[in-house]
Amino acid sequence: MMHGLAKAPMSTKRAGFMLGLMTLIYVLNYIDRQIITILQEPIKHEFGLADWQLGVLTGAAISLFYTAASLPIARWIDRGVNRVKLIASITALWSLLTALCGLSQSFIQFVIGRMGVGVAEAGFAPAAHSLLSDMFPERRRPMAMALLALGIPSGIMLGLSIGGTVAQWYNWRVALFIVGLPGLLVALIYYLVAREPERGASEHYPIATADGPEGLIAAMKILVRRPAYVQVLLATGTSALVSTGMLAWTPSFLIRAHGLTLQEAGIGLGIVTGIAGLLGTSLGGWQATKFGAKGMYAMLPIPIVALGLTIPTFITTLFIADGTTALWVSIIPISMTYVWSAPSIALVQNLAPVRIRATASAIYMIIANVVGMAAGPMFTGILSDILTRRLGSEAEGLRWAMTITAALMVWAMVHWTLAMRKLRAAQDRGELVVAA
């Protein structure tokens, strides 16, 4: 077992091996995080919940506590904690808590369990992004981030497929046991074989060996003085709000509007999300690597176009009469919602000084989770409750709530465009966008 610091840039072979393990952990992360979306109908009926309460379970319960824990953990990471040991520990913790959620006897108990999952998951992205930035040089960083991000659609695909099938044949409690417990074994393997790289080992410029700025406020001041970083955060928040608000409710829509069973919705949407996520994330990483050589701004035109295509294509799927056809057509808009992910993560890491990269990543993930995972499903759920009372149908109320949510993607496009302009202006002025 090796946890000492690498004294030189990590070899390509070792870096690739560690990236593969972290991607597997990210798969488990998203299985545990997203499985509730396919289980929410039986959970709703067992506990007698309203749609806004389902929005709390699928979003706010995990996201708000994820937010509360993210920055303290990120500052701990930036101050030199062993990131490999941290990832192994929190992976074991969130996996155990996911399984324990299957023992919940009330809505409150379930919410408390999901809060714990949120706290445990809060440290993964800052630690993983910081690790990858030390393992891969700037020119290879977007693709490394894209490969890590493939854990998101893979986790969603497996979570929906396994969750829907197990809940159909057994119940939702067994589904949580089955997806939670394997994480304990993966955490142990990662702890035994992964190695901590030296901070800043992949950079082509000298890196100060001193600690980063003292305190969270000092670190945040450095970041907010970078207009492009701020715009990337705003763009991420609005993109996540709309994307999560749409996708979190798609299983329920297929069940309510088209009469699909849990298994049909879970397996079908799992396959579709997996294919779409792999396509969108790979496109985002490839184009960022290819065009990013011209400058950071060049990573963004294709994601902006992709988000624009999301609006008409997603709304179209909501009004297709046949559920199976709607499911397969949704590959197009779902894939478009993944294109911005890898470029945005790479930009955050490239714009942040080495010693506060975990903090920069934590702020990014807080925005994505609070505005996206927490507010997104809740916003659509509240709209669904309001429109259901007006229209007299749960299916129609949800259909129009998701339509309104999709239209808000224009807001995200505005912020991505502003981020692109800020990056281009900084480059034209000859500023060092990535600072040591």
Automatic annotation (TrEMBL):
Chief place of localization: membrane
Record carries keyword Transmembrane helix: yes
Membrane topology: Multi-pass membrane protein
Pfam family for this entry, one: MFS_1
InterPro entries: MFS, MFS_dom, MFS_spinster-like, MFS_trans_sf
Subcellular location field: Membrane
CDD domains xrefs: MFS_spinster_like
Gene Ontology cellular component terms for the protein in this record: membrane
Protein name as it appears in the record: MFS transporter
Organism: Sphingomonas montanisoli
